[in-house]
Structure formats: structure tokens, C-alpha cells
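ugh ok so i messed up the first submission bc i forgot one of the chains. this is the corrected input, ALL of the components this time, i swear. 656 residues overall. if the numbers dont match what u have on ur side tell me asap before i send this to the collaborators (the ones from the other lab, u know who)
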Amino acid sequence: MDDVMLSVSNLHVEVSGVEILHGIDLTIRYGETAALFGPNGSGKSTLLMTLMGFPKHIVTGGNIVFKGQDVTGMTVDERARLGLGISFQRPPVVRGVKTRDMVTACLRREVSDGELRDMAGAAGMEEFLDRDVNYGFSGGEIKRSELLQLLAQNPEFVLLDEPESGVDLVNIAVIGDLINRLLQKDVRIRERSHSGLIITHTGHVLDYVSARTGYVMIDGRLSCGGDPHEILLTIKQCGYEECSRCVK
Amino acid sequence: MREVIPDLGDAPEDMASPDGSFGGPDPDAFAADAPEMPYVEDLSSLPGDVKSRMLRAGVVTDDLSGRAGTFIQVDHTPVHISLAQDGVEMMSVREAREKHDWLSDYWWKAVDADADRFTSNVEHGDYNGYFIRALPGQKTLLPLQACLYLGTDDLAQNIHNIVIAEEGSELHIITGCTSGTHSGAGLHLGVSEFYVKKGAKLTFTMIHDWQPGISVRPRTGIIVEEGGTFLSNYVIMKPVKDVQTNPVARCVGRDATVRFNSVIAGFPGGRMDLGSTVYLDAPGSRTEIISRAIAVGGEIVARGYIEGNAPDVRGHLECRGLILDKGGVIHAVPELRGTIAGIDLSHEAAVGKIAEEEVQYLMARGLTHDEAAATIVRGFLHVDIEGLPDALSQEMQHAIEASEQDLM
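and heres the new structure output, hopefully the right one now
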């Protein structure tokens, strides 16, 4: 099992006293990208937030092992420094904190203005460096800001919560390109060390980012591990009702 | 002109008066006289601790190349005046009164001498202060700096400043008000009158860096004529016993502009009642009042008052307060008054804590909880100031950053 980067075993999670995830098992290997489908409220975001360690998401059973370490009891920042990173679906506005402050914080080193501008330029975010992070950003700008921060952070495992939501078709290609950089898609599969888990409703992002495996989350349970494109096709043809029947 | 200043006269020192302002100290309980200080030709020869105190208040003493002029007053004595800019006058206000007969037209015209016992004390006491005037059309590139230094224990320091930006001129001033490290009790009374003439621009940045035993009562009036701009930045990020001030600006000319930015930190045992008042008396005049208050103890009252008395005026007031875990009280009092149709006044006020959601967001990028909280606090205290020279922005930022450790 040396090639396993993330292993989730029998994970049970509560939020505000209500169990949302009921025994999740999931394995993602080094270099692997997985897609996660599921209807609204099924627990997809809860899984991502739990993997990242947000304290409102309380693990009541099971564990999370990342790069051979049990991270179940680790704080968010400890996990981030170990190599986990997340792109939020709806990140908070932090008034007064500039996008450049966030990118610099993610880099955790001194950076020249030129280097910062180059990085931001690649994400189409150069004009946003001196704006309060996420303040007044459009849907696409939020996603690009999130990915810019992740590129600076350079996590080995990337959690992406609906990276294409609120993004127009032209910008999805840009988003896809940034995700591919994060996931080292330009490197041969065997040499890739970065992995990812992508929540997608529409599957549009999969037109730009290749995923090896797909899962469906129904009522806090995972089902249908398999080819993500086949899963997506089934969902489009039969809806999530078919997945619900599978789970039962 | 009558200033709107809360009457603090009968309120006991340790009790808030009914209008929410703090009671004040009795100037007569402090010494009126201080020893005459010798003139200091070379500021770099000042004792290290004095220079350090001045620097914390944004006043440089070793290299004056970045300043268009320097005025230093210790207690009642101006000890240094130097000017490196043509078209600008800078001298003690006493000297200016002797030199310019016409100064009586400006003397106690923006601030009422009878406003309260503090103004009265300045009028009748052994006052001094600075007189700064930019001649018509003269634009200074570098800021002028002034330091009002309270060096003697138990002294009531009486200051009276006059600043005039003549028609079409541009003037940038940084004033650092501070006290010696040895200072126990003390009272700083500072009357400042600003006159911004037609089409002139005046930026005034004041950094207060006192000691926990000092009481401070600035009294400020500003008159802005047609097309003139007055921009005030006030920073107080170090412990003080109590401060009460409420600068009053009047836009008396069409399209006059006034902006007040305040960055305030409250510490245990300290009490601050800090306001800004703007009367929009001429058509098209506009104002913005922004206040950021952060409390780790003590009590802060953050006031703002905008009154629209002419058509097509615009005003916005923003009071934001942050109470950190260590506690403290922040009382935001935003007030708007309109007396005529066709005005546009608005305000927003918020007092709260650091949002845990924001902390977690930053932690997801690898920052520790403390680093994340410090980043959010730093951001909260950052105020974008349009039109302020870089040098002054940097001084403000230094004063704020130097206090982050105290806050966190």
C-alpha cells in the first residue's frame, strides 16, 4: 500500500450534533485524481471539510491517514503544512487582508513583487492583488483566487469543492488549466506525486481535467467507484435515483 | 464658530457623563509652568530615549532629508525649528502672532476659546505651538513634521497650533505627540485650527504615543473653502490614560472635501472618546469618516457625526470595532443629520470579534491560529488612504505594526 496517499476508513462525521457521513471508505493513490458526484446535501462538502480538518466537522468514528500519518486529530493548519490544500466553494471575505497577503502567506517565504505579479498574472488575478480577498469578486474570480492561493501553497493533495460553479464557459478552461498545474498533469503519470479529489455537479471540469476514478455520494455514503465519465453519463441518463438504489 | 464639544465640566473623572463622553481631568490640578528648554540645533544630539519616543510617533531626528520642515516643542518651549522648503512658513505660533497682524483673523476662529475648560486653559495659560502656512499655489512634496513632547511630570501642556493652506497650495503635515518614558501623570491640551483655502489640499497625520498616566484633550477645528480638501489621519495604538477629542470640520465652500481616518487601540484601564464631526454647509461638498477601533481592554467610544445642510452633498461614515479575546468595550456612535432635500448621507457600524470562519480559512493555507488572527487584525487596521504621500502612509503603517505585539 506504499502508493496510497490518502486513506479514509469507516469515517463517521457529525455537524452540529447530526451525523452527516455514515462510514466512508476511500483510497486515493499518489498521482491519482478522483471525482466526487452527488446531489445537493449528500455530504460531499462535509467530506472535504472533514479531510481538511475544520473543527465544526467532528469525526465520531473511523480515521484519515495521509502519507502514512493518521491526521484525524490534527488541526487545519497542521494538515495544510503536511500537504493538504483546499479550494473553497464559497470562501469568506476577509476585509483588509489583501489577495497579495494571502498568496504571500501561502508561499511561506519572502517573495518579490515581480514574482507575485507573474504568479497572479498566470491566474488572471494581477489586478486583484491589492484588493481585499474575495471582496466583491465574481464567481470566476473567487475560483481563480482560490487556485492562485493553492498554486502558491503547492499542496500534494488538493481538495476542490465545485471549482466550476459560477464560472462561465470561457473561464472553465482557465480554471481547468490551473487545476492541471496543481495536479502536475504535465508530468508523466508514474512521476506524478500530486493527487486530488474534485467535487463536481455538472462534470464540466472533467472536460479539462482528467480523473481516473469517480465516486457518488448519496445520503452520506459512497457508492459507484469507477470510471468518472461512465458515472457521469449514468447520472445524466438516470439521475441520482439510480445511485440511491445502488446504495440501498 | 461654536464647536460641538461635549461638556465635561462637572463630570467626575472616573465617571462617564450622560452624553457618553468621559469626564475629564482638572487642568488646575496640574502644574502650569515648566522649565525653559535650550534650543537644539542638531536633533541627532538629542538623548537616545527621546529620539526613540519621537520616532515611535513618526518624527525623525537623525536624517531630516525626507522632511520639508521640522518643529519640535518640549513642554512649553519650541526647541527646534528648521525649514527646507520655499514657499512655506513654519515658526512658533507666538512668533507668528508677532510677525503677522492678520493672524488675529484666524485666532480662535475655528475653535471656540470658551468651548470648555480645556480650551479656556489654553487661551489663558502659557501656550505655544506651531504656525505652518503654505503660500498660494505652493505645493510641498515632502511632509513637514512636528513633535509635541511632554517631558515634565504633572504638567499641563498647552498647545495652540494654526495651519493655513493658502489658495491652490498643497501641504502635508505629520505631527507626533508623545511623552518621556519617565512621565507619570500629565495633561496634554492641544488646540489646532486648520484653514484650507480655495482649491488647496492639506493632509494631516497625527500619531499619538503616550504613557498610561497621560490625559489628552485635543480640540480641533477645520474650515474648508471651495474645492479644498482636508485629509486627517489619526493613529493611537499605545496605552494612554484617557483621550477625548472630536475634531469639527466645516465645508463652507462648494465642492469642499473632508476625510477623517482613525485607527485606535484600547488597552486595559484606558478610556478614549474619539469622534469626528463634519458639517457639509456648501453645495457639492462631501466627506468620509472611517474609524477602526480595536480593544484588548479599556473603553473606546467611536463617534462620527455628519450633517448635511446644502444640496448635493454626500457623506459616508464607517465605524468598525473589533474586540479581541482579552476584552474591552467599544461603543460606536454613528450619527447623520440632514436638513435639506437632495443630500446623500449613509453610515455603517459594526462591533464584533474575529470571525472564526476567517481564521480557519487562513489556517487552511498553513498559518497557525495566532498567525491567522494577527493577519486578520493587521488587515482590519489597514485603511486605504487616497492622496496620502507614501512617506506618511509608511509612518502610519509603522506606528500600527509596532503595536501588533501589544494587541496579540
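quick check: Residues 27-355 of chain B form one domain. that seems consistent at least. Residues 1-21 of chain B have pLDDT under 50 and may be disordered.
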